Amino acid sequence: MAAYLIRRLWQMIPTLLGVVLLVFFLFKYFGSDPSVILGGLNASPEQIEAIREQLGLNKPVWEQLYIFIKQIVTFDWGKSWATNESVANLFATRLPATLTVTVPILILEVVLAIPFALAVATVRGSLTDRAVMICSTVAVSISLLVYVILAQYVFAFRLGWFPVQGWTGNHWTNLTTYAPLPVLVAVAVSLAPQIRLYRSFFLDEIGHDYVRTARAKGLTERTVLLKHVLRNAMIPILTNVSVLLPGVLVGSFLIEVFFSIPGLGRELLLAVNRGDYPVLQAFAIYLAALTMTFNLLVDLLYKLVDPRVVLK
Amino acid sequence: MVCMTIVGCFLVLVLLAATDLVAANWQKEIGVPNAPPTLLGPQPQEDTGAIVVPKGPNVDLSDIDPLAPRYGEWAERAKAFKTEEIVKAETLPLGGDRLGRDVLAKVVKGAEVSIVVGLSAALVATLIGTVLGALSGFFGGKVGDFLEWVYNVFTAIPTILLIFAFAAIFPRGIGAVVCILAFTGWTGIYRLVRAEFMKHRVREYVRSAEAIGASQWSRMFKHILPNVSHVALVQLSLHVVSFIKSEVILSYLGLGVSVDQVSWGTMLAEAQNEMILGYWWQLAAVTAFMAVFVTAFALFTDALRDALDPKLRGLE
Known about the structure:
The structure holds two protein chains of two kinds. Chain A is mainly α. Helix content of chain A is 78%, strand content 0%. Chain A has 15 helices and no strands. Chain B is mainly α. Chain B has eleven helices and no strands. Chain B is elongated and about 110 Å long.
């Protein structure tokens, strides 16, 4: 176990290095010149030169890369070009808002999708099954934007059940007042494809021999489904959740933009629009590292769910 | 079959729009602002409160107004420059937007942009994925390791973040959106094509081709590629759908097509504000067009996969 963990962590290093190189060269050679962005429209050549000097853009490339890596390791990203807020502070203040929305989304999604999918899978081939499948195919085809626009209009603007948008400094108020509508919309939208996917997992398991055996020895359908099928289908479900898990950090950026939630995703979009490179680079690298850590955790979770899995 | 007809109709529509046969003048303001759809009839005349002609002793100011003698002269002169009266339509087939542009023409033009972006991005992504996957799967070894590393790097960064990073450095426009989506979307295709190439590389027919002296390139692209092309084709059509959706979202956020173009995403961005004022037709038009096309294309993809890859049938 320990050896496995160490090897996995060791393997993460080249990938992380690649991410660092990708981000560095992407912005260095394809992005527009930072000094021009910072200088603004009316900058004189001397000002541009001064900014270049200050940012170290006149140094050789390898030295810039060294500084870049040093910034990553020491968690010192300096300040956002646009707001002069320190990048570390940005992270710390925006993350709670994002998590307030995304964690309930993820939990509700999984908790709701599993029973629904199991129910749909048991009535496979029937009219209900086909109706649900057709509905979810059509529902998936409509852009997420439409649902958000409509939900905001109907539930918040027309019916007034929820505030249209808003956020406060109090976590509890946020969770109970401002988060419900975004969470409900996001769950409603992603539920259909999730059910579709989980249904295919369950169907896959139901087709196996062990299910027939379980039925043959007289177990109730309930036991077969809940004990045998569900347990075995947890593996692909867990894989799917692990794919969704990194989305907890920036995944719901559209929801954040719509409902003006001051989270990481919205901050990222602002950074793109302002050409705020330090923020973008820091986000890219740390989120990549976090994603890899999540994946590692899920691999360890497999072991918990399925004792047959051998970690090597 | 129905879905293929619908997809075909949309493609014809895209061609017609691209050659300016339909929806060429989507930017013309041919209707009154926010003209409702024809079915609903014209907007009720709002009471604009016509100015009541004042009455009273001090109404006629012409003897103290220094400009009064020249009013007649100016009216004469103004007649020489009589502007053309454009009769604006009260209603349009699918309604009009804020500027009175025809929503039908806009949605057709938007369909052209969105579908072209989706298709070409999927083509480029498939091309990148297939070529890299072929190289990695066929050669293995150092090349394979290097490409695996590149793949790991690209998949380590969350997709949306990668898209944003690319969007930050590219200018706005159709070409840029295609590049952004293609450069971030090739990884899944790469993985599948690579696996197929690894499987086929050691098959007998490839070995026999090698024995009769077929070069590496010829083996890769003449012998193996036709045998794995179904994977690439299915992935291509799967990606078209997801790229169209991504384009809509990117354009909505202002990271997509430039401002003088229209796509389903920019229309949705406008529709959001119109919605609050009660003008729902632009939203409805875009939603309907998009839902029909994407559903049809998704069903078409399913059919294509069933036909080309029978092993996967019934899985979903």
